[in-house]
Amino acid sequence: MKTDLQIAQENQMVIIDEIVTKAGINPKYVEHYGLTKAKIDLGILDELQSKEDGKLVLVTAINPTKAGEGKSTTTVGLVDGLAKIGKNVMGCLREPSLGPVFGLKGGATGGGYAQVVPMEDINLHFTGDMHAITTANNLVAAILDNSIYQGNELNIDPTKVIWKRCLDMNDRTLRDITIAQGKPTNGVERKDSFCITVATEVMAILCLSKDLKDFEERINRCVVAYTYDNEPVTIKDLKVAGALSVIMKDAIKPNLVQTLEKTPVLIHGGPFANIAHGCNSVIATKMALKLSDYVITEAGFGADLGAEKFLDIKCRLANLKPSAVVIVATIRALKMHGGVDSENLANENVEALLKGVENLEKHIESVKQFGVPMIVAVNKFAKDTDAEVNALIKWCEEKNVSVSLSDAWAKGGEGTVDLAEKVVELCSKESDFSPIYDVNDSIENKVKIITQKIYGGNDVVFSDEAKTQIELMKKYGWDKLPICMAKTPLSLTDDPKIQGRPYDFDIHVTELKVSAGAGFIVVYTGNIMTMPGLPKVPAALGMGIDDQGESYGIF
């Protein structure tokens, strides 16, 4: 069986100019990055302003397991499936982080015969956006510490610096460090920590900005520290926003690539959904909506994280109205939610499947609360038995839930024709979309609504530190911002070990941080970390380049 990388390497890409033509993009807005990648200048949005928007479709999933759900594969397959039935369609995806690529999770370009290419480039350095974000973030940190060292005119309390340095890599050793040790000329010694690039506020701001001017206005509002008098210090106080805009002037532009079947895809931005808001950029999404009749996008992890944030944060802040939601599930993952361990997934087990389907049922209930038409896509694996597939489809039909069997991994667009046709039908219906909470409600109530409506929990337990931080949020008017929950993706609870659909549980909030530039409050639950670690055997150990110059081991 060929690997995803082998399939991608054997594919004959067309030059990006052909994709530009297919997408209806005026060539004057195209900036080439080699023969198969390009950035699209934001000036095209002015030219397309009067054009009617297409239909926006979100692809989400059940809570992820080691068995795999194939959300990106289904997303790319659906893009090609819609093209296969003659629809004018574009995909909108996030940029992969190097941390998971070299760690455990892998890339984010789909799989099998439903991939975006050039797969290696996209999963590695691509067009340099991640490096720009990392540099911009770390320039703020350097300017901030230099301000403290050079007389501390802003009266910053070194123990109250909240802006973290970042690295686009999984490195647990950087979670807690001490900087400026040794000579006094090294700076003011203090405790510090790193986060992964995709968890930074710079990444969130990139993905929620309208243009470079909006990016600069948002970045100015970022809180980086507090003074000895407990007053917030912002990037505007550091006077570095102009330099950050210079760094980001190219990264603000979406990247155009193609699927294996030559369908246009915009890839731009990539915040994690367990820490940040988990959606690609507003700029790319709005650009695609002007260029095509159907836009297929995805949000990270399961519907309890990515979809909730897409619908409550991104759509609210960008005034977007989704037309349909696709929830991806696999027989294998549902059996794991039903109690089957990974070693026995190949064995037929309808009973475990129907127990695990409760996890899917909760996500269906959650999505329905937003008023958007939805469908379940059953992502097919070769070892799924007819009895298992039929049992899941029958369950959906009995629940009056639209369902489609997707075979994107093996057949590409041909394997998602039924799903594509059903998505078109869903998009013809009226979407009654609305967020699930009033942004002007209290922080406590907003978190409780998410806990009860999306996770199915009872209540929220706030730590003493979190209660103190809530009062600080109220003092500065930040309490009226949307909520971005930082929670494990592996469970509906804040305990990653609890699978399926748990009942009678509380969510434990440990701390809160304001992302004033992005425009939301990050609420940390359980033991969530902003710097992942590597597994015992990182994926990087199996990678290399052969004698023909071809990469191997990248999935």
Topology:
Blueprint: H1 4-10, H2 16-23, E1 30-32, E2 38-40, H3 43-47, E3 55-61, H4 71-84, E4 89-93, H5 98-102, E5 110-111, E6 114-117, H6 119-123, H7 129-149, E7 156-161, E8 165-167, E9 177-179, E10 190-192, E11 194-196, H8 201-208, H9 212-220, E12 223-227, E13 232-234, H10 235-238, H11 241-248, E14 255-259, E15 264-267, H12 282-291, E16 294-298, H13 303-318, E17 324-329, H14 331-337, H15 350-368, E18 374-379, H16 386-398, E19 403-406, H17 408-411, H18 417-427, H19 443-455, E20 459-462, H20 464-475, E21 483-486, E22 506-515, E23 520-525, E24 544-545, E25 551-552
Parallel strand pairs: 3-16, 3-17, 4-15, 4-16, 8-11, 17-18, 18-19, 20-22, 21-23
Antiparallel strand pairs: 1-2, 2-14, 5-6, 6-14, 7-12, 9-10, 12-13, 14-15, 22-23, 24-25
- What about the largest sheet? 12 strands, mixed
CATH topology value of the largest domain: Rossmann fold
Q: Name the beta content range.
A: 15-25%
Ends apart, CA distance between termini = 13 Å
The CATH class designation of the largest domain is Alpha Beta
**Which spans have pLDDT < 50 for at least 5 consecutive residues?**
none
The assigned structural class equals alpha/beta
Strands, total number: 25
CATH architectural designation of the largest domain: 3-Layer(aba) Sandwich
Number of helices, where a helix is a run of at least 4 consecutive DSSP H or I residues = 20
Q: How would you describe the shape?
A: globular
